[in-house]
TrEMBL record:
It comes from Lentinula edodes (Shiitake mushroom). It holds the Pfam family Glyco_hydro_5_C. PROSITE patterns: GLYCOSYL_HYDROL_F5. Keywords: Glycosidase, Hydrolase, Signal. This is Glycoside hydrolase family 5 protein.
Amino acid sequence: MLFKKNFVIFVLAAVLSTTTAIPVSTGTREISANEEERVGRSLVVDMKRHGDSQERGRALSTRRHGDSQERGDSRVRLATHTETAGSEGIVVLASLFASMAIAKSEVTVAPVLLLDVTETAKNVEEVTVVFVLLLADTETVGNEEKVAPALLPVSTETAKSEVTVVPVSLFDVMETAKNVEEVKVVLVLLLADTETAGSEETVAPVLLLDVTVTVKSAEEVTVVLVLLLADMETVGSEVTVAPLDLDDGSADVHLARLRGWGFNMLRFPITWEALEHEGPGNYDYEFMDYTVRVLRKCKEYGFKVYIDPHQDTWSRFSGGSGAPFWTLAACGINPRNITSTQAAIIHSEYPIPSATTPASLPAMVWSTNYGRLLSQTIFTLFFAGRDFAPKCIIDGKNIQDYLQEHYIEAMGQMADRIRDAGDLLEECVIGWDSMNEPFEGFCGWEDLNANPTKQGSTLKKGSSPTPAQSFRLGMGTAQTVDNWNFGTFGPSKNGSVTIDPNGDKIWADPDIEDTDGIHPRWGWQRDSGWKLGTCIWAQHGVWDLETGDILRPDYFRYLPKARKPIDGRVLSEEEELSSPNTPVVEFVEHYWRSHWRLFAIRIRASHPEAIMFIQPPVFAAPPPIEETGVDGLNGRCAFAGHYYDGLTLITRHWNWFNADALGVIRGRYSSPIQAVKIGERAIRKSLQEQLGILKSDTLTLGPYPTIIGEIGTPFDMDDKRSYGWTDDGKYRGDYSRQERALDASLNGADGPNAINYTIWTYCPDSTHQWGDGWNMEDLSLWSADDIGLTGRTPTIGDLLKQQGDEASMYGMGRDDSQAVLLRKKVEASQGRIFRQPSAADSSALSLATLGPLEVWSEITSRWKENPFDFLTDGARAVKAFARPWPTKVVGKPSNIQFDIASTSFKLTVLVRSEDKLNEEGIDDKDLATEVYVPLVHFAHPRLLPSRENEQTPSEDDTLDGGEVRIAPSPSEISTSTTPTITNASVGWEGLTEQPDVLDIEVTVSAGRWSVQGQTIKWWYEVPQVGEVDREYTMEIRRTGGAIKTNESLNYESWFEQLCPDLCPESCCVM
């Protein structure tokens, strides 16, 4: 991270079941493979996702202002000018194309683009003023400065030496005092704070929006924050933000909720940047230790975890997440010109840096970065630099080896820290991904003059340059490129658009390194054969800089080192390219697999029993991998491909038709029109078939389990209809469409597939306005903004009104999204500033961010009284994802059926003689198949709203028993300034053994069963050797019928209702 420990929790809910192919062992004790430890549902905790550059759409790295992009250099070297006259004042404006001049006590401020940093004077005789607004007009009249508002009108009032700050949603205007004896004030962003100490500057980084701490007299120096991704200088300190508070009980609340929903495994994303942001080989061990603390907290709740080294389009500095900033410099990239060359779409700079409207970023347009120059180039260098960029040598190594070695060792250091914790391996952490959604880059590209015409995994939306056009754009030459629209019926070309970089180049200026190629900040030495300032593909003869012509259009199609001579004669370049003996690039086989092997070797050096979750590029089948050896599977593997309903994800609408996208990509149809599916039943069947294809891909690896590594649905459908943003709020809190969409996807994993899945995502700081806080994605299963909308708890705003304290907190209910000033204490510890996050940082991560302790106590007390309320309040489409699920199976689940409308569940289990438990390998001699039964669907009537149960649950009816402690009673509220709650009991977790939690009827074809909390245990006979296989079934229904909610489901579309006879099973256009 650019900021020390600036991270956000992202949670990914998932379902995992290990199969009989994986023996689970601890020491010398082996658990029989016959007991499928279905390490079921999971979530993901992303320690660094905040740092993904588009946090709330307001991030623009000030690193991009300076020529050197050095960490800690907050001064601006691009079109910034500061003049001082006398000692009346000093002003530093650290943004693009801005200048300030101070003459005596008169201040003139030029308009700026977006983000600024401040530099304070080192003595109290100089007064610091910062201007951080978007395209604001400034007029100077005499000695009085007037600033016009930019976008949203708000005022900051100055009264002599005291200041009153009025919060706003996004942008603010400042009003300065009439003379320098009165302190100038700036309100920058939303809900964060900065404190000053004496005359030294202390800057706290923020996730989204900040305010300044103003001084009460000219004897104090005014200090203002930066913004997300801004370079900053602190005096003798570095900054750390730890948004997941492990001490105040808020982490327990989130983990208890997820456990109560039935999830039992976490997919835990960690970015490379989080581990090695300070520079090559400089690891952040404090972050690693904090991660260990979080993992221990997950362990307390019985979660298993597998680590996800996460990335999207390479880095947060290139429109996604993942790699550290210095990797761009290592690849010769100039990040200041990414947007102007359209080498990537960056949220904070969308559509252009001079007129940003980040909230208007189109859905999923960030993923088009995989079709743009930066991602295409860097992923090619990372996976195949030795073959396609042999001139790119740094520190005596090819850039491929340099990047891969640093990436793998950074993750290896994290694995070492987990191992050294002593109590996490196998007890909690069970395995690793190798890289989230790896990308091919240019590898295998057929013709650089054209984009592929067949359907692929890269989205076509907006401008779509060919590689040839991207090369020219990268060197500053204007290009007219195709423009695409993605509508109801998929992508379609809708004309062209001209992109003019105005001479800006994506390639770094040679002056960033000295004459010997040594970088003054990062320390590497670049080989003299690698020239900065020039496209590396031109340097390798792929295209001509003078003419712009592509010289080798199929340069990336073939394996260069595999080309063979004819008749003992060395081939010319032309013969080389046309030789039939030259193999075509197969990215997964030739490049991905070799990286995976190196990664697996390093991880297993720390974690010998690690399960390796195999994840090649999206929709790609895995390659064969050796079973034994230091780089083999060794019986510890799962295939973890990703799947989303692409049409719903991109259009943000649940349609009455869809298409078999995976079938099209795999060549199942001669024409894409054949893949169209009409009607909800047809769509559900198609999704199940597509996930079945991914399950069959696993067989390439061997008899291993399948987990769909990511699956989910957007919740901001139909212009945020469910948030009350349309139709005069008529559909506020109605997530029925999202429920249908998510149920259709998860039903695809059920049926005969019976496979595991990981739902993306659970974000404790999700908001209606900014979604997940990353590139306008909005897939979180829970949002604090939905408290009181999807459950019975009053909204936070209503509770505040009851207490007459509306303006004292950040409202997270539907009517209370206004921002107010929250001030937190900055604590110094071991030379670092540990800043508790503001509500904008993590509105749901800390109890303090919910506002007055009395409000928090009211909410959690209501949750404590009723677990049904706790599990439904703030949840979105909860009936779709809180599903019955076999968490342990003696045998093999052969079919899983669950119907939300009727609340009926059926599990079919195939049991063979080899499934008999090995009693020598287990401690529990009475193991049974265990099925999680969600309270959300099968709650006892006493837990339900009054319309189903007229009696209000009495104190005696609540699940107390001394162990249900998810919140304090009023008498238990701490008098400390830091709110705390009693940790949620591990005994609760939605798995309590208290009676009368569920209202169920259970029917089994054989055996016996019992209910323990939300778990049914089922015992049955296993065939003896020589006996035929047996099939058993279990059916579960709610005695009182399906629980009625506002989100009534109707799985028939208007088309199916009109013509039911035409769509008995499925309907497709042929």
